[in-house]
Amino acid sequence: MSDLSQSLQINIFASILVPVIGALLIFACARFRGLIELLFVGTALCLLAVTISIVNMGPEAFYQSITLFTIIDSIPIAFHVEPLGILYACVASGLWLVTTIYAIGYMNANKEKHLARFYMCFCFAMAAVMGIAYSANLLTLFIFYELLTLSTYPLVAHKGTDDAKAGARVYLGILIGTSIGFLLMAILWTWSITGTLDFSVGGILENELPDGLLMLLFALYAFGIGKAALMPFHRWLPSAMVAPTPVSALLHAVAVVKAGVFCVLKITVYVFGIDVLTNTGANSPIIWVATATMLLASLVALQQDNLKARLAYSTVSQLAYIVLGAVLATSTSIMGSSLHLATHAVGKITLFFCAGAIYTATKKTLVSDMHGLGRVMPFTFAAYTIAAISIIGLPPLAGSWSKWFLIDGAISADRLIIAIAFLVSTILNIIYLMPIAINGFMLKPKQASSDIHEAPFAVVMPLCVTAGLCLVLFFLLPYVYDFLLLLNLR
Amino acid sequence: MIATHYPILQVVIPLIAAPLCSLLPRSKLPWLLATVVAWIAFAISISLMLQVKDGGTLSYELGSWPAPWGIQYYIDTIGAFVLVLVTAIASITLLASRQLVENEIDSSKHSLFYTAFLLCLTGLLGIVATGDAFNVFVFLEISSLASYAMIAMGDNRKALTASYEYLIMGTIGATFILIGIGLLYMQTGTLNMLDLKARIHEVDSFRSIHAAFAFFTVGICLKLALFPLHHWLPNAYAYAPSVVSIFLAATATKVALYLLYRVFYTIFGFEFSFDLLHLGYILLPLSIIAIVMSSFTAIFQPGVKRLLAYSSLGQIGYMTMGIALETKAGLIASIIHLFNHAFIKGALFMCMACLLSRIHSTRLVHLAGAGRVMPWTSAAFVLGGLALIGVPLTSGFVSKWYLILAILEKDYWWLAVIVLFTSLLSVIYIWRVIEQMYFREPNEGCVGIKEASPLLLACTWVMVLMTLYFGIDSRYPIEMATVAAQALLE
After folding, report:
1. Cβ of residue A116 closer than 8 Å to a chain B Cβ
2. Complex ipTM, two decimals?
3. A185 and B474 in contact by Cβ < 8 A?
């Protein structure tokens, strides 16, 4: 075995094992509160280090399959690295580090219980995320996809109230339901016609199925990946908002939902192949479903008074951007879609951090109660404003790049209507995100707010960092662009 | 050489040990004897397995009377496979049984209980090992009578009616099988299975062969608890002492399924059973109804043992569905599930035994907060439950994978959809239990309860780890099932 593949193997296994070991250590030290917090942050640091070392291995390491063991027939549990997976892993592990600090601050400030279980499941979820990011075939992807659902279920139900349990039931029901009902079906179907489940550049389905059935198979995949929250299977996302805010922030704005769109991207690029999709038109129905989801979810978001619910629907809408970029299946739109995966993650995690900070400081959850809070919580609201503008897609913030490529992609696919839909959705973004910032700074508070201060440092610091990232990424994104060009779609 | 006598020793050792057991005083010595005997039987069956694993057969002539006249014991791959399964489950169950028996059964009956257990084991092993049709009936009765007695030892008075109901139904089933054997004997003049196989097609009077076939079908399906002949099973499993539930759930129906393979593939032959008499046409609808109905019923059960019993009915449906597909792939799927389900259900009933030993109830409402007071047991239940659902990395997933591939091979799309849909139903009934265990505050009665005894817990985890192991490395069951299916179809 060459040096490269050996170190690749070590790195990939490490990125899955580090969080698992972290989780086990947390379980073992459950009684010592300070220690588990230290372990939690330490695990995140180690994971980030491993991820960076994978990035540093460069393009020579791409598409080398590392086999763990074979489960059934000749389908092994196998991993490889490729540009999309590395991007997703970087986003998830980078933001995890920030979230660990935020989570500790938030959980302590709000006196949440069962911390060890909480941190442990968080670590397991990250292990599953890394497995998804590096999976080299559909079976591996499916396994870690299910593990991610199972490991995040306790986090959603964390509070143990009836509300939390009901939310968690919807969460589990929809995610497991779609994955077993549609995704597993689609995988089995793929296996029965092609005899392979490996991800390979250009796809594995060329000339295997008539166009109509190909369309059906693609729909099975798109809806089967419930984590991508295409309507009508989006209900789990708002339901999951009963979880403590750090969970909503990392998992339901970054790791879990991005796992969904990442799977869609990966299946589009490596199972179907963008040429097959565009030549057969198998992607058409899903394009319309995603467009509808994008617009409808924005409209629903407008009507939500609960800040977290509004952000949740905004996430549904933004996920549809990414799915749309993927299923438009041109090299530009895939680029836009991948970039949006990163920029939306940074922006949305900031918004959720802000929602959590406001809750920690004031116990307020309704948008209509938040008037004038910007004056007493300047950092939080400044961060909110920056992130909101980034999500809307104005320069000089990161979101502007990805939106540019997405719209360009729609035009390059000769779908002008979709390009217009992107613009309409942008206007809706402004309408539902900006008033919170504007009212926060401009209006007078409804009640005296002299006793309201910023949330604790551990809560405010992370959101300032991620807001800063929105700005910094604007200048760094060209590098990411260069990196993604290694995908070599054309 | 003693090794040549293994096929008969397998059956004779427990048979001789059984009356010895009843002579031993108190409960420790009978337990020790029974456990040692079970482990010896396990060792013998492993050695038999090694001799026939490549598709060879072993035959043993009782008292050296040559084959068609004397009684012949005949062990091929499927036989050895089931022998290993039954003895493995029996050894683990008996090892764990000491404390359970002490808790649940009146101390004057301990030695009799172990006697009955060994007789039941003798019967089950005899059915599998023998190559003589009448011997099958004899062993069937031995095992059934012993299990009626064991079920009646349950501490709930309803155990008596459950046992009585099983006795009536079981006797009808055994009688039907006996009539079938009688008809065959009348027409062919032989009881040796291989001889029957050779002569059955020379018979002129087709009607009596058809009648025999019908009697066998009904009799075996009764023993198998296939819908609509399943009514005895839920009560029997729910009210039996927990040791008996573990053992019967994991082995009794599996041996009945073995009998089905033996009769319809070996004696009547595949062409006669499936091409001429279309056994598949009966089994397929019945399997579907069994699966759907029992999954729905399981959802509404207030007692977890009953819930698991109904789930068993559904799982048996998956096994018969594999047979009903009338293909080699279907038969392989059926055999794999037979093996995997034995460990899964064994593990789950073992968890019930753990809970019963501490909380003294397995009703859902009494299990609130069990996750906190009995973490290891609850974790074992979660893993077993996931295996039952068929989550990847557990053996249940391997079973489902092969079953659905076999279904897709026949192009039965709708059936694949049904199988996936019923998997979702199993998510619901398993999750009701998990939610109760983890996200409810413990009842007052649960305060101060400790984890189950180490030996019991260790045995539970052995079973759980088996399901995980065979979910990750499934080579052994798949290889065996393939060889066995090949031999059965020849």
Report:
1. no
2. 0.80
3. no
